[in-house]
Write a structure and sequence with these properties.
single chain, alpha/beta, 3-stranded antiparallel sheet, globular
Length: 347
């Protein structure tokens, strides 16, 4: 059974001291304190996260893929590295650095990895410039963006030229939660990741939906991480709000929010087969792609085992495990199993 992971992360093993380079702080750096392990540190000296070699070494990642029968994996940067708060010109330079690395990994392992670029979304013009380079020069297969950009949600009209460019270039968007809302009220129990992340994704979906983005850009391909967050399980409330308070909800004259279900994609990271079945009933399997959030512990590090061992029909399993990703990222599914082939498999 073919498997294409639509959601995984990678970062470079090292990068320049950005605080020294740009003249101000707030950036992450890597402290390789022992073989195969590193600390992600903030440049004020505060510890952020411990990571292992499978977060930066493609050869180690491929070993894990082979162990779990994963044919291809979609790689994007770790959201804490978005650096949307940096000065625009510095964000642009940083994005170019990350995208060059992502393109190098994809190019070296054409049959195993798809790479998604990152952009300096704090400046839409620079983002479009780098978007075009990602598409036309680096051959990246899409773009990862955050669930909000600083103090702007994804319905902000300043992003409309960016969506128009993505639509024109046929560059899919993968929306990942970051900088979770209300985290100052959730200092304990890992709650920013357990509660804040699902809320962030719902915020992004509702912002684009109520903001009319899906109406204005009907060919824009958007996938939301983590099963769509809390949105699928509150869509009834969202729809009811549209009906009972149109003065507050329907200022952009959209359709019933339920009608937009199926106009965007979600990954299948639910960790629960009943939740996944709910998603299938709501969205249809053709809008859901198996993903892992690899290599982080909150991800599905059994690489879709709960899908493979479920009682779902084989047709549905195949749709989830590879067909949806193949369609979303425009991959020739007849070539997916040629992991050792040298040719480029992309259409």
């Amino acid at each position: 059974m073919k498997k294409i992971d639509c959601h995984a992360h990678i970062l470079p093993k090292t990068w320049p001291d950005l605080k020294s380079k740009f003249g101000y702080g707030g950036f992450i750096f890597m402290e390789h304190h022992k073989a195969g392990s590193a600390k992600m540190m903030r440049d004020d000296g505060k510890f952020f996260r411990e990571i292992q070699e499978n977060c930066w070494n493609p050869d180690v990642i491929i070993k894990d893929m082979d162990a779990f029968g994963v044919d291809m994996m979609t790689l994007c940067t770790v959201p804490v590295l978005f650096n949307y708060w940096a000065k625009a010109e510095h964000g642009y330079e940083w994005s170019c650095f990350l995208n060059d690395h992502l393109a190098e990994v994809q190019q070296k392992h054409k049959t195993r990895f798809i790479s998604l670029g990152t952009l300096p979304m704090q400046d839409v013009k620079l983002s479009i410039k780098e978007l075009e380079r990602c598409k036309n020069q680096l051959d990246l297969k899409g773009i990862e963006i955050g669930t909000h950009i600083l103090d702007k949600n994804l319905d902000d009209v300043s992003f409309f030229p960016f969506y128009e460019a993505c639509e024109a270039l046929d560059m899919p968007l993968f929306v990942h939660p970051w900088d979770m809302m209300g985290q100052e009220k959730m200092p304990n129990y890992f709650l920013p990741w357990l509660v804040g992340m699902p809320a962030e994704t719902s915020l992004a979906i509702c912002s684009m939906l109520f903001g009319g983005v899906f109406d204005r850009f009907p060919k824009l391909k958007v996938m939301f991480a983590h099963g769509g967050g809390s949105f699928p399980f509150t869509v009834g409330r969202v729809s009811h709000g549209w009906y009972c308070r149109p003065d507050l909800c329907d200022i952009n004259k959209i359709k019933d929010p339920r009608e937009y279900v199926g106009k965007f994609w979600v990954d299948g990271i639910t960790h629960d087969i009943d939740a996944l079945k709910f998603l299938i009933n709501l969205f249809g399997a053709e809008k859901i792609a198996y993903g892992t959030d690899y290599p982080f512990p909150l991800g599905d590090l059994e690489h879709g085992k709960f899908i493979e061992e479920s009682a779902l029909p084989s047709e549905i399993k195949n749709q989830l495990l590879y067909k949806t990703s193949a369609s979303f990222f425009d991959i020739d599914i007849n070539e997916v199993n040629k992991a050792s082939a040298k040719e480029n498999i992309f259409l």
